[in-house]
Specification:
about 230 residues, alpha/beta, five-stranded parallel beta sheet, about 40% helix
Amino acid sequence: MAQRILVVDDDPELVRLLRAYLEQGGYQVLVAYDGEAALHILRRERPDLVVLDLMLPERDGWDVTRVVRGDASLAGTPIIMLTARVEDHDKIVGLELGADDYVSKPFNPREVMARVRAVLRRAQGEPSPARVLQVGEVVIDMDQHQVQVEDQALKLTPTEFSLLCTLAEHPGHTLTRMELIEKALGYSYEGLERTVDSHIKNLRRKLTRAGAAKGLVETVFGVGYRLAVEEQT
């Protein structure tokens, strides 16, 4: 069954272009032209991924992302943001709200297709020789794409899950931001390396709220991140 992509943008020409490329790639495409309509379709249709413009009527992309990540039934939906001529700060805000990736306008539709495929792969979870990883009180089920902290299920975005798995596969080893991008995201990321910081910040917050040790994900200043060796069991 074809995976379903919701494209949200108030530019009909851009929507038609993306729809044509996505359908040619074998995806079923749903469309919305404002934030309210997007949320309605999300709740009714439960698409596999959302390509979401930031500057929308009714509700903007930041607000839509905030609502999606705050709704337990929708929180796992992957989101790729489309950004126009906005400051890097605006992109960082989108990532901190829980977007998995972003593409800057104007863009090559083939780039969007590559990002869609990569994010969907992360959302589905790729096979790994290590089926279950445990880091302290954090248990990561690679096959089921689930994380538990002291028996409490943790809701992570596909990008957060991939970053956690990558760190857990290299306990005690410092990974640079670019290494995390390449290993966790699975493709060459043309955006800012610092966007990884936003995902790590979200990941840390969720882990800590669930009861994981605050120092589990360590920052190695000027280099990158690692999981604390002393947390391994």
